[in-house]
């Protein structure tokens, strides 16, 4: 594990998002309430220095300084590739070259991103979803992992059926907003001899 930064060091947006994800996980485990989550998130997003991130974690398990440790996988840099649709379907299937960063915008149309045959040249793939009413399916290859901690849903559900712990394969970071449609992250599987 890398050494956490000194308390007086200024933090980045990635540091704040990592801390926010840990707080959301604490709420999902029943350790804090929704009201406490909102109070603590306000502190996290207002933080400027490393020391400012410690108080929201003082009564949670683990060393509060762990939230300041750098993650081993770096966030991709550069502008994202943008895919847009209104009411029509948006599909990326078969062999295609996956960018390091992808922004998907859909008003009502369904979204299918199938990475199982895609050329993955980056260890981390970021997918930012901006979804209205349509559902989204994201299929990742064997050996890949994905986390959806930064993804918020309105009425729809979010289902991640793969491991969220980075391993040796590609890792997908999926975040953003889903309105009415559900988001499912899974691998391909066979039903009655058909791959779906």
Structure overview:
There is one protein chain. With about 200 residues, the chain is of the alpha/beta class. It folds into two domains: about 15-70; about 80-195, no CATH class. It is built from two helices and 14 strands. It has helices spanning about 15-30, 35-45; strands at about 80-85, 90, 95-100, 100-105, 110-115, 120, 125-130, 135-140, 145-155, 160, 170-180, 185, 190, 195. The chain has a five-stranded parallel beta sheet with strand order 1-4-7-11-9, with helices on one face. Strands 2-5-8-12-10 form a five-stranded parallel beta sheet, with no helix packed on it. A two-stranded parallel sheet has the order 3-6. A hairpin with a 2-residue loop joins strand 13 and strand 14. Helix 1 (about 15-30) runs antiparallel to helix 2 (about 35-45). The protein is globular, with a radius of gyration of 18 Å. The model is unreliable at about 1-5 (pLDDT under 50).
Spell out the blueprint of helices and strands:
Layout: H1 13-28, H2 34-46, E1 81-85, E2 90-92, E3 97-98, E4 101-106, E5 111-114, E6 119-120, E7 124-131, E8 136-139, E9 145-153, E10 158-160, E11 171-178, E12 183-186, E13 190-191, E14 194-195
Parallel strand pairs: 1-4, 2-5, 3-6, 4-7, 5-8, 7-11, 8-12, 9-11, 10-12
Antiparallel strand pairs: 13-14
The termini sit apart by 39 Å
Q: Which class do the helix and strand fractions yield? A: alpha/beta
Largest sheet: 5 strands, parallel
Overall pLDDT score = 85
**Rough outline:** globular
Helicity, in percent?
10-25%
Give the beta-strand count: 14
Largest sheet strand order: 1-4-7-11-9
Gyration radius, rounded: 18 Å
Our count of domains comes out at: 2
Q: What is the strand content? A: 25-35%
Q: Topology as H/E string?
A: HHEEEEEEEEEEEEEE
Individual helix count:
2
Q: Residue ranges: pLDDT <50 for 5 or more in a row?
A: 1-5
Protein name: DUF1707 domain-containing protein
InterPro entries: DUF1707_SHOCT-like (IPR012551)
Domain DUF1707: 9-61
Pfam family, one: DUF1707
């Amino acid at each position: 594990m890398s050494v956490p930064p000194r308390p007086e060091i200024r933090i980045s947006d990635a540091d704040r998002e990592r801390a926010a994800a840990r707080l959301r996980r604490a709420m999902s485990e029943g350790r804090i309430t929704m009201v406490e989550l909102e109070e603590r998130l306000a502190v996290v997003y207002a933080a400027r220095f490393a020391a400012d991130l410690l108080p929201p974690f003082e009564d949670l398990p683990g060393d509060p300084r762990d939230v300041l440790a750098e993650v081993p996988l770096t966030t991709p840099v550069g502008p994202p590739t943008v895919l847009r649709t209104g009411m029509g379907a948006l599909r990326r299937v078969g062999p295609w070259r996956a960018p390091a960063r992808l922004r998907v915008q859909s008003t009502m149309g369904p979204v299918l991103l199938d990475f199982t045959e895609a050329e993955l040249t980056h260890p981390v793939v970021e997918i930012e979803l901006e979804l209205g009413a349509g559902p989204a399916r994201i299929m990742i290859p064997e050996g890949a992992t994905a986390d959806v901690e930064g993804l918020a849903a309105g009425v729809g559900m979010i289902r991640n059926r793969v491991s969220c712990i980075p391993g040796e394969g590609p890792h997908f970071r999926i975040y953003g907003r889903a309105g009415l449609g559900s988001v499912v992250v899974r691998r391909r599987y066979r039903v009655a001899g058909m791959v779906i």
